[in-house]
């Protein structure tokens, strides 16, 4: 979304939440950059400079405002770039790829040379992969210093720094402030209660309105797996695991603040960045909804949609999404939910080190499925074989975003792969044309309907068509 200076001026003066994260305002006289919703008195226009991203403002020598905290703004679409390789590189870096391995290993995973990777980042973002990684680490650290009372040592560890000295140096270089100075400005607190034996954190995750929580809540409710997930009138939560790390979160919707307050518990603090990133993805907090809705209106041939603020409800991992898709083949949503519940109940790690009101279940890993007695699941034998083959494929560290390779597995067709991509990878451009619900909804539309006009947001079109049936 390209914004002119006049549009940016109007948005910042109105403090319009819809533009939050689409641009950042830098004030020449103070050397500070802010979000469009900053509560501070509006500066004069001649003293203002606009930037499409926070990193662009930082590279120009500005430091973040301590009142509006640009680190908590919804993710700008500008970060996504124009290149599929860049998108994947950003995702892997956000998951800690450069914290755990050198740049050469990341380039190898992407199937490109290290030199090309550096050039791609320079051309599209304006900085090196390592600089991007460090800036993201520091932004998360700044947010934790504001939102929580975690010890600074724990903050450094959670954000991927192996030494306090390195953490302090990077923080001072990025923000011209020390972690202690940021901490004095914060009002964070530590959550209390019976939790997993690990780290308890409460953090706020912002989004850009509108956000149709009612539809998302209904969507989750119809597919909810008791013990694995829980749902309230204004909250959604679930358990999760990443390798040896496990935990759970509950996200409470705060529509008046355009954000979610997330209570998070995890056993290994170093996994925090990727956990937060995945929560944002599952709740689809970074979508530019107005842009998406304009594309859907074109495809549907109408001026406005019957429902606004639609979001793409994610599943925690591509593997879980694939299993749910296989169990959902040719059955109703209710029947699929019952099968997934039976499948999750087979996990020997259920009830693992958790002291809480819920009976906690954890979705099994691909390696664990190989030891399951799938005969307990009431389904055709061929589908049990598909579950086994898919789990063995994932356990062998094969990529679950390889569309062609997945289709070669017996029992897995286009609908299953596309469902995995739509909800497990949050691919925004999946149109489930072969889905029975989509077919029924299409019968309600005029003949002028053209799904290609909704690209690259056809996953949202799929969800919108499903909503017409309810």
From TrEMBL:
SUPFAM superfamilies: Ada DNA repair protein, N-terminal domain (N-Ada 10), DNA-glycosylase, Homeodomain-like, TATA-box binding protein-like. The keyword DNA damage applies. GO terms for molecular function: alkylated DNA binding; DNA-3-methyladenine glycosylase activity; DNA-7-methylguanine glycosylase activity; DNA-binding transcription factor activity; methyltransferase activity; sequence-specific DNA binding; zinc ion binding. It holds the Pfam family Ada_Zn_binding. The keyword Manganese does not apply. Its cofactor is Zn(2+). Residues 87-185 form the HTH araC/xylS-type domain. PANTHER family: DNA-3-METHYLADENINE GLYCOSYLASE (PTHR43003), DNA-3-METHYLADENINE GLYCOSYLASE 2 (PTHR43003:SF13). This is DNA-3-methyladenine glycosylase II.
């Amino acid at each position: 979304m390209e914004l002119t200076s006049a549009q940016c001026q109007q948005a910042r003066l109105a403090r319009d939440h819809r533009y939050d994260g689409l641009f950042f305002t830098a004030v020449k006289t103070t050397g500070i950059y802010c979000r469009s919703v900053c509560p501070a008195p509006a500066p004069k226009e001649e003293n203002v400079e606009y930037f499409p991203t926070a990193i662009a403002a930082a590279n120009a020598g500005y430091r973040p405002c301590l009142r509006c905290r640009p680190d908590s703004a919804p993710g700008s679409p500008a970060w996504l770039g124009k290149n599929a390789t860049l998108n994947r590189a950003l995702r892997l870096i956000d998951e800690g790829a450069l914290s755990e391995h050198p740049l050469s290993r990341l380039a190898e995973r992407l199937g490109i040379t290290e030199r090309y990777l550096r050039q791609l980042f320079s051309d599209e973002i304006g900085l090196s992969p390592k600089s991007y990684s460090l800036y993201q680490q520091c932004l998360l650290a700044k947010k934790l210093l504001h939102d929580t009372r975690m010890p600074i040592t724990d903050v450094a560890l959670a954000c991927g720094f192996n030494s306090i000295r390195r953490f302090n140096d990077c923080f001072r270089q990025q923000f011209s402030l020390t972690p202690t100075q940021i901490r004095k400005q914060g009002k964070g607190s530590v959550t209390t209660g019976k939790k997993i034996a690990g780290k308890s954190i409460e953090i706020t995750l912002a989004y850009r309105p509108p956000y149709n929580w009612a539809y998302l809540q209904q969507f989750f409710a119809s597919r909810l797996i008791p013990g694995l997930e829980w749902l309230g009138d204004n909250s959604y939560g679930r358990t999760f695991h990443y390798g040896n790390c496990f935990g759970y979160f509950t996200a409470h919707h705060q529509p008046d603040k355009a954000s979610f307050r997330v209570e998070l518990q995890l056993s290994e603090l170093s996994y925090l960045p990727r956990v937060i990133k995945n929560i944002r993805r599952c709740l689809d907090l970074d979508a530019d909804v107005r842009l998406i809705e304009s594309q859907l209106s074109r495809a549907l041939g109408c001026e406005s949609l019957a429902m606004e603020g639609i979001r793409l409800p994610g599943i925690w991992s591509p593997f879980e999404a694939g299993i749910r898709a296989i169990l959902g083949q040719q059955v109703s949503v209710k029947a699929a939910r019952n099968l997934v519940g039976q499948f999750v109940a087979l996990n020997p790690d259920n009830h693992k080190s958790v002291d809480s009101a819920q009976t906690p279940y954890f979705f099994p890993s691909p390696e664990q499925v190989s030891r399951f007695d799938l005969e307990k699941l009431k389904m055709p034998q061929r589908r049990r074989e598909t579950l086994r083959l898919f789990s063995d494929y994932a356990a062998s560290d094969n990529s679950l975003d390889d569309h062609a390779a997945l289709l070669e597995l017996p029992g897995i067709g286009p609908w299953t792969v596309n469902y995995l991509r739509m909800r497990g990878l949050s691919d925004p451009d999946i149109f489930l044309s072969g889905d029975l619900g989509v077919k029924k909804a299409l019968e309600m539309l005029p003949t002028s309907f053209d799904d290609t006009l909704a690209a690259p947001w056809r996953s949202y079109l799929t969800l919108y068509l499903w909503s017409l049936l309810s």
